[in-house]
Design brief:
This protein has 187 residues and is of the alpha/beta class. It has eight helices and four strands.
Length: 187
Amino acid sequence: RPAPAASGVLVSLPDDDEGERATIAKLTMRARDELSTTLGVPSPTNVTLRFHPTTGDYERATGQSWFTSGAWVRGELHLLPLAVLRERGVLERTIRHELVHAMADGVLGTRPAWVREGAAIYFAGERPIPGQGTAGAAARPEPRADCPRDNELLRPVSVGALSDAYARARACFARQIAAGKSWRDVK
């Protein structure tokens, strides 16, 4: 069960990870507040993070593959086991990514998946091209690939396919932002 917090951030952890509750809540509050300012939207009153004890449990609860790391499902942020996210070095980015969905999908919810995922990737600070450092990303132009279709993002067939679709979604989103559009107007 999630432990209640005065901050509106509820964290559900397996027993072995209980000692991490305060750290995760603090990280989430900071990310939530930063994203609220960046997006110009109110912070969600309550955010529930549910860390699953196993990858299989995550897959059963979300219907997503293990390589997706996190999912926004029925108003809760579902995450792979804490140790897995830390080992991959994606804990904070995954939380930020899913918080963007929580905050922006109300505006972007009827648009193609590449818009929603592109926004989440862009504002979470994820690298534009998997495996490329942020310094290299700034020095290289965004790829001109087509924006991914919904099924490429919502039902990826592999890690590589999802990485490619994410890179293309971010590039499509970033191009429209660079052209002067507000994130609310990306289509």
